Request: fold
Amino acid sequence: IDAFIKVPRPDDTTDGLGLTVLDEPAAQQSDPTVLDLQLRVISKQPIVKVPMTVRSIEHADKNPKKITTWINNIDEVHRQKPAPHVHYTKNMPDIEQLMQAWPTQFEELLKIIPLPSGDIDMDVGQFSRLVCSLLDIPVYDKVTESLHVLFTLYSEFKNNAHFQH
Reply:
């Protein structure tokens, strides 16, 4: 199916295909409800303002494949849901930048000098500031945003296939 071929209506009336009505030139058409959910997630608009069409499966007891497909589609929508975006009050480094390899001199130094353990005589706030500063995460008045960056960095490393054994 060619996505660019648009056959005009015989009466030359514009139908708004692709502008007001979804024009999906594919053999396997998307489920309109799933597409609506995906667009709601992306647009971040309040759900209350826009009514949603409720779809049903006729003779659901005789169509278990349609039910399974529906469940799989909704699971996929939830899996692809973007992570919430956090707005920091001060500039914070990009996670990708923090994941870059350290200079070899610093890595050699880490082999000689051990990192501080949890047994060090510091309160939690001081220890948090120390750990963040070792990882080049700036700490401003409140350590909360820096800790958010730290845990996001940890999560990225943990979920990165390159670091899994």
